[in-house]
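ok so dumb question maybe but i'm new to this and my supervisor (M.) told me to 'just get the structure for YiaAB two helix domain-containing protein' and walked off. so i did the thing. is this what she meant?? sequence i used:
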Amino acid sequence: MSETPVKQQNTAAFYGQAVASFSVAMAATAIGIYQLQADAWVRAFLAIAVLYLVTSAFTLAKIIRDRQEVGQIVSRVDQARLDKILVEHDPFQKPGGAPAGQRP
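this is what came out, is it supposed to look like this??
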């Protein structure tokens, strides 16, 4: 009666592309900060700011994913309750009487 949600899994190519993209972006940023013609404290500040930005982005992505998973779990529980009610419902039962097919 209910449809089981299909687990979506990323392919190895997608995973590899994401890791490579992240690595290239971090390396390019690190090289750019290192090559910057500025005092050491300015470069250190920029490096810490980049690390803070990256950790904040990971945290935000995790929170969004967790909220989505909770929504899917609640949806599945609600669907299971509805399925149980529909299975137990007998449209031919008289109000206040015994279920159809059973005699008191």
